[in-house]
Amino acid sequence: MAEAVIKVRGLRKRYGELEAVRGIDLRIERGEVFALLGPNGAGKTTTVEILEGHRSRTAGEVSVLGFDPGRNEVALKERTGIVLQHTGLEPYLTVSETVDMFRGFYPRPLPLDEVLEVVGLEEQRDQRVRRLSGGQQRRLDVAVGLAGDPELLFLDEPTTGFDPTARRGAWAMIRSLRELGKTVLLTTHYLDEAQALADRVAIMVRGEIVAEDTPAGLVAADPDAVIRFRAPRGTALPDGLGLREADEGLIEARTADPTRDLNALTSWALAEGIELEDLTVSRLSLEDVFLRLTDEGDGEVGS
Length: 303
Hints:
Elements: E1 4-15, E2 18-29, E3 33-37, H1 44-52, E4 59-64, H2 74-77, E5 80-83, H3 95-103, H4 112-119, H5 134-146, E6 152-156, H6 164-179, E7 183-187, H7 191-197, E8 200-205, E9 208-213, H8 215-220, E10 225-230, E11 244-245, E12 251-255, H9 258-272, E13 277-283, H10 286-296
Helix pairs in contact: 4-5
Protein backbone atom coordinates (compact mmCIF):
# COMPACT_ATOMS: atom_id res chain seq x y z
CA MET A 1 0.00 0.00 0.00
CA ALA A 2 1.27 3.49 -0.90
CA GLU A 3 2.28 5.89 1.84
CA ALA A 4 -0.55 8.04 3.19
CA VAL A 5 0.20 11.76 3.42
CA ILE A 6 -3.22 12.54 4.91
CA LYS A 7 -5.21 10.11 7.09
CA VAL A 8 -8.59 11.06 8.54
CA ARG A 9 -10.86 8.84 10.60
CA GLY A 10 -14.22 9.79 12.07
CA LEU A 11 -13.66 13.54 11.61
CA ARG A 12 -16.41 15.70 13.05
CA LYS A 13 -16.85 19.44 13.41
CA ARG A 14 -19.77 21.00 15.22
CA TYR A 15 -20.79 24.65 15.47
CA GLY A 16 -23.38 24.71 18.23
CA GLU A 17 -26.30 22.64 16.97
CA LEU A 18 -24.91 22.46 13.42
CA GLU A 19 -22.67 19.51 12.59
CA ALA A 20 -20.73 20.71 9.55
CA VAL A 21 -18.59 17.56 9.19
CA ARG A 22 -20.21 14.28 10.16
CA GLY A 23 -17.67 11.53 10.78
CA ILE A 24 -15.76 11.37 7.50
CA ASP A 25 -12.85 9.03 6.68
CA LEU A 26 -10.21 10.05 4.15
CA ARG A 27 -6.85 8.80 2.90
CA ILE A 28 -4.66 10.74 0.45
CA GLU A 29 -1.52 9.05 -0.81
CA ARG A 30 1.86 10.54 -1.58
CA GLY A 31 2.24 11.98 -5.07
CA GLU A 32 -1.44 12.09 -6.03
CA VAL A 33 -3.71 14.97 -6.95
CA PHE A 34 -6.83 14.56 -4.84
CA ALA A 35 -9.92 16.71 -5.49
CA LEU A 36 -12.42 17.42 -2.72
CA LEU A 37 -15.71 18.57 -4.22
CA GLY A 38 -19.07 19.58 -2.86
CA PRO A 39 -21.86 22.17 -2.97
CA ASN A 40 -22.02 25.20 -0.70
CA GLY A 41 -22.35 24.16 2.92
CA ALA A 42 -21.15 20.60 2.26
CA GLY A 43 -18.31 20.91 4.80
CA LYS A 44 -15.35 20.71 2.44
CA THR A 45 -13.91 24.13 3.39
CA THR A 46 -14.14 23.24 7.08
CA THR A 47 -12.46 19.90 6.37
CA VAL A 48 -9.58 21.51 4.47
CA GLU A 49 -9.08 24.17 7.16
CA ILE A 50 -8.83 21.41 9.79
CA LEU A 51 -6.22 19.63 7.67
CA GLU A 52 -4.29 22.89 7.27
CA GLY A 53 -4.33 23.46 11.03
CA HIS A 54 -6.42 26.62 10.78
CA ARG A 55 -9.51 25.20 12.48
CA SER A 56 -9.95 22.84 15.42
CA ARG A 57 -11.96 19.64 15.16
CA THR A 58 -14.70 18.42 17.47
CA ALA A 59 -13.81 14.72 17.23
CA GLY A 60 -11.88 12.22 15.14
CA GLU A 61 -8.31 11.38 14.22
CA VAL A 62 -6.30 13.46 11.74
CA SER A 63 -2.74 12.89 10.56
CA VAL A 64 -1.01 15.15 8.01
CA LEU A 65 2.53 14.03 7.12
CA GLY A 66 2.53 12.17 10.42
CA PHE A 67 1.57 15.25 12.46
CA ASP A 68 -1.64 16.28 14.18
CA PRO A 69 -2.40 19.64 12.46
CA GLY A 70 -4.33 20.75 15.55
CA ARG A 71 -1.04 21.11 17.43
CA ASN A 72 0.14 23.89 15.12
CA GLU A 73 3.71 22.57 14.91
CA VAL A 74 6.33 24.45 12.91
CA ALA A 75 7.75 21.18 11.58
CA LEU A 76 4.47 20.52 9.76
CA LYS A 77 4.18 24.05 8.39
CA GLU A 78 7.66 23.74 6.90
CA ARG A 79 6.52 20.75 4.85
CA THR A 80 3.19 22.10 3.56
CA GLY A 81 2.21 24.89 1.18
CA ILE A 82 -1.15 26.65 1.04
CA VAL A 83 -2.55 28.53 -1.96
CA LEU A 84 -5.72 30.35 -0.94
CA GLN A 85 -8.41 31.48 -3.35
CA HIS A 86 -7.71 35.14 -2.49
CA THR A 87 -4.27 36.42 -1.55
CA GLY A 88 -2.79 39.84 -0.82
CA LEU A 89 0.76 39.99 -2.18
CA GLU A 90 2.70 43.26 -2.11
CA PRO A 91 1.94 44.90 -5.49
CA TYR A 92 5.18 46.88 -5.82
CA LEU A 93 7.58 43.98 -5.37
CA THR A 94 8.78 42.11 -8.43
CA VAL A 95 7.96 38.46 -9.01
CA SER A 96 11.49 37.42 -8.00
CA GLU A 97 11.45 39.60 -4.88
CA THR A 98 8.10 38.16 -3.83
CA VAL A 99 9.16 34.53 -4.20
CA ASP A 100 12.53 35.22 -2.54
CA MET A 101 10.81 36.83 0.43
CA PHE A 102 8.73 33.70 1.03
CA ARG A 103 11.70 31.42 0.37
CA GLY A 104 13.37 33.13 3.31
CA PHE A 105 10.71 31.78 5.68
CA TYR A 106 11.77 28.14 5.16
CA PRO A 107 14.91 26.19 6.11
CA ARG A 108 15.26 24.34 2.77
CA PRO A 109 13.50 26.35 0.05
CA LEU A 110 13.37 25.49 -3.62
CA PRO A 111 15.83 27.45 -5.79
CA LEU A 112 14.24 30.60 -7.18
CA ASP A 113 14.80 29.64 -10.81
CA GLU A 114 13.19 26.24 -10.27
CA VAL A 115 10.08 27.79 -8.70
CA LEU A 116 9.70 30.26 -11.57
CA GLU A 117 10.16 27.50 -14.14
CA VAL A 118 7.52 25.25 -12.55
CA VAL A 119 4.89 28.01 -12.54
CA GLY A 120 5.91 29.47 -15.91
CA LEU A 121 6.95 32.94 -14.74
CA GLU A 122 10.57 33.02 -15.94
CA GLU A 123 9.87 35.87 -18.35
CA GLN A 124 8.02 37.88 -15.68
CA ARG A 125 10.69 37.53 -12.98
CA ASP A 126 11.48 41.29 -12.97
CA GLN A 127 7.91 42.46 -13.44
CA ARG A 128 6.06 44.09 -10.56
CA VAL A 129 3.15 42.14 -9.11
CA ARG A 130 0.63 44.88 -9.88
CA ARG A 131 1.40 44.61 -13.60
CA LEU A 132 0.74 40.87 -13.85
CA SER A 133 -2.37 39.53 -15.56
CA GLY A 134 -4.92 37.63 -13.49
CA GLY A 135 -3.54 34.30 -14.67
CA GLN A 136 0.03 35.37 -13.95
CA GLN A 137 -0.93 36.52 -10.46
CA ARG A 138 -2.47 33.12 -9.79
CA ARG A 139 0.74 31.47 -10.95
CA LEU A 140 2.60 33.69 -8.50
CA ASP A 141 0.25 32.53 -5.72
CA VAL A 142 1.28 28.96 -6.52
CA ALA A 143 4.95 30.01 -6.64
CA VAL A 144 4.62 31.39 -3.11
CA GLY A 145 3.04 28.12 -2.00
CA LEU A 146 5.95 26.20 -3.53
CA ALA A 147 8.69 28.45 -2.16
CA GLY A 148 9.47 26.21 0.80
CA ASP A 149 9.59 23.02 -1.30
CA PRO A 150 6.49 21.51 0.39
CA GLU A 151 5.65 17.85 0.23
CA LEU A 152 1.93 18.67 0.38
CA LEU A 153 0.20 21.58 -1.36
CA PHE A 154 -3.34 22.76 -0.56
CA LEU A 155 -4.69 24.37 -3.73
CA ASP A 156 -7.98 26.25 -3.38
CA GLU A 157 -9.94 27.12 -6.54
CA PRO A 158 -6.82 27.64 -8.69
CA THR A 159 -8.55 28.84 -11.88
CA THR A 160 -11.55 30.85 -10.69
CA GLY A 161 -12.18 33.68 -13.16
CA PHE A 162 -9.74 32.37 -15.78
CA ASP A 163 -10.49 32.36 -19.50
CA PRO A 164 -10.21 28.94 -21.23
CA THR A 165 -6.63 29.52 -22.39
CA ALA A 166 -5.43 30.55 -18.94
CA ARG A 167 -7.20 27.57 -17.37
CA ARG A 168 -5.40 25.13 -19.67
CA GLY A 169 -2.10 26.77 -18.78
CA ALA A 170 -2.87 26.38 -15.09
CA TRP A 171 -3.74 22.72 -15.64
CA ALA A 172 -0.32 22.16 -17.20
CA MET A 173 1.27 23.81 -14.17
CA ILE A 174 -0.64 21.54 -11.76
CA ARG A 175 0.40 18.47 -13.76
CA SER A 176 4.01 19.61 -13.40
CA LEU A 177 3.56 19.57 -9.62
CA ARG A 178 2.66 15.89 -9.83
CA GLU A 179 5.82 15.28 -11.88
CA LEU A 180 7.80 16.86 -9.04
CA GLY A 181 6.30 14.28 -6.68
CA LYS A 182 4.16 16.80 -4.79
CA THR A 183 0.89 15.72 -3.21
CA VAL A 184 -1.92 18.16 -4.06
CA LEU A 185 -5.26 18.55 -2.31
CA LEU A 186 -7.39 20.47 -4.79
CA THR A 187 -10.75 22.17 -4.35
CA THR A 188 -12.47 23.51 -7.46
CA HIS A 189 -15.82 24.68 -8.78
CA TYR A 190 -15.05 23.20 -12.17
CA LEU A 191 -15.91 19.54 -12.56
CA ASP A 192 -14.06 19.25 -15.88
CA GLU A 193 -10.98 20.51 -14.02
CA ALA A 194 -11.28 17.76 -11.42
CA GLN A 195 -11.86 15.19 -14.16
CA ALA A 196 -8.77 16.36 -16.06
CA LEU A 197 -6.38 16.69 -13.11
CA ALA A 198 -7.37 14.50 -10.18
CA ASP A 199 -6.14 10.96 -9.58
CA ARG A 200 -9.03 10.53 -7.16
CA VAL A 201 -12.10 12.53 -6.18
CA ALA A 202 -14.27 12.70 -3.07
CA ILE A 203 -17.69 14.35 -3.15
CA MET A 204 -19.10 15.79 0.08
CA VAL A 205 -22.79 16.48 0.71
CA ARG A 206 -24.15 17.72 4.05
CA GLY A 207 -20.95 16.98 5.93
CA GLU A 208 -20.52 13.43 4.61
CA ILE A 209 -18.49 11.88 1.80
CA VAL A 210 -21.08 10.34 -0.51
CA ALA A 211 -18.71 9.09 -3.22
CA GLU A 212 -14.97 8.54 -3.60
CA ASP A 213 -13.08 7.02 -6.53
CA THR A 214 -11.09 7.93 -9.59
CA PRO A 215 -13.02 10.28 -11.93
CA ALA A 216 -13.34 7.41 -14.42
CA GLY A 217 -14.52 5.08 -11.67
CA LEU A 218 -17.24 7.45 -10.53
CA VAL A 219 -18.48 7.88 -14.09
CA ALA A 220 -18.33 4.15 -14.87
CA ALA A 221 -20.33 3.31 -11.74
CA ASP A 222 -23.38 4.98 -13.33
CA PRO A 223 -24.45 3.02 -16.44
CA ASP A 224 -26.75 5.73 -17.83
CA ALA A 225 -26.16 7.76 -20.97
CA VAL A 226 -27.41 11.27 -21.74
CA ILE A 227 -29.31 12.30 -24.87
CA ARG A 228 -29.10 16.03 -25.59
CA PHE A 229 -30.58 18.16 -28.39
CA ARG A 230 -32.22 21.45 -29.24
CA ALA A 231 -35.78 21.85 -30.55
CA PRO A 232 -37.70 24.87 -31.81
CA ARG A 233 -39.00 27.11 -29.03
CA GLY A 234 -42.47 26.09 -27.83
CA THR A 235 -42.21 22.49 -29.08
CA ALA A 236 -44.46 20.09 -27.16
CA LEU A 237 -42.08 17.33 -26.13
CA PRO A 238 -43.15 13.66 -26.14
CA ASP A 239 -43.99 11.92 -22.89
CA GLY A 240 -42.27 8.85 -21.53
CA LEU A 241 -38.65 9.73 -22.29
CA GLY A 242 -37.90 11.81 -19.19
CA LEU A 243 -37.01 14.87 -21.24
CA ARG A 244 -36.22 18.07 -19.37
CA GLU A 245 -34.83 21.49 -20.14
CA ALA A 246 -31.16 21.86 -19.23
CA ASP A 247 -28.71 24.74 -19.41
CA GLU A 248 -28.15 26.91 -22.50
CA GLY A 249 -31.41 25.91 -24.19
CA LEU A 250 -30.60 22.21 -24.38
CA ILE A 251 -33.14 19.46 -23.78
CA GLU A 252 -31.79 16.29 -22.22
CA ALA A 253 -32.76 12.89 -20.88
CA ARG A 254 -30.84 10.30 -18.90
CA THR A 255 -31.39 6.78 -20.09
CA ALA A 256 -30.23 3.26 -19.34
CA ASP A 257 -31.27 2.19 -22.86
CA PRO A 258 -30.02 4.89 -25.26
CA THR A 259 -30.66 2.84 -28.43
CA ARG A 260 -34.35 2.37 -27.64
CA ASP A 261 -34.93 5.93 -26.42
CA LEU A 262 -33.01 7.51 -29.28
CA ASN A 263 -35.11 5.52 -31.75
CA ALA A 264 -38.31 6.70 -30.06
CA LEU A 265 -37.08 10.31 -30.03
CA THR A 266 -36.06 10.41 -33.70
CA SER A 267 -39.24 8.60 -34.79
CA TRP A 268 -41.28 11.27 -32.99
CA ALA A 269 -39.22 14.06 -34.56
CA LEU A 270 -39.62 12.61 -38.08
CA ALA A 271 -43.36 12.18 -37.60
CA GLU A 272 -43.71 15.78 -36.37
CA GLY A 273 -41.31 17.24 -38.94
CA ILE A 274 -39.04 18.60 -36.21
CA GLU A 275 -35.30 19.09 -36.62
CA LEU A 276 -33.28 17.96 -33.58
CA GLU A 277 -30.30 20.29 -33.60
CA ASP A 278 -27.01 19.48 -31.83
CA LEU A 279 -28.20 15.93 -31.13
CA THR A 280 -25.68 13.94 -29.08
CA VAL A 281 -25.61 10.72 -27.08
CA SER A 282 -22.81 10.43 -24.52
CA ARG A 283 -21.79 8.74 -21.32
CA LEU A 284 -22.19 10.73 -18.15
CA SER A 285 -19.45 13.20 -17.24
CA LEU A 286 -18.12 13.76 -13.74
CA GLU A 287 -20.30 16.87 -13.65
CA ASP A 288 -23.41 14.78 -14.36
CA VAL A 289 -22.49 12.39 -11.54
CA PHE A 290 -21.79 15.29 -9.20
CA LEU A 291 -25.14 16.94 -9.95
CA ARG A 292 -27.00 13.68 -9.38
CA LEU A 293 -25.30 13.09 -6.04
CA THR A 294 -25.75 16.66 -4.82
CA ASP A 295 -29.35 16.81 -6.05
CA GLU A 296 -30.07 13.70 -4.00
CA GLY A 297 -28.62 15.52 -1.00
CA ASP A 298 -30.53 18.72 -1.70
CA GLY A 299 -27.23 20.41 -2.48
CA GLU A 300 -26.62 23.60 -4.41
CA VAL A 301 -23.64 23.67 -6.75
CA GLY A 302 -20.93 25.93 -5.38
CA SER A 303 -17.72 26.07 -3.38
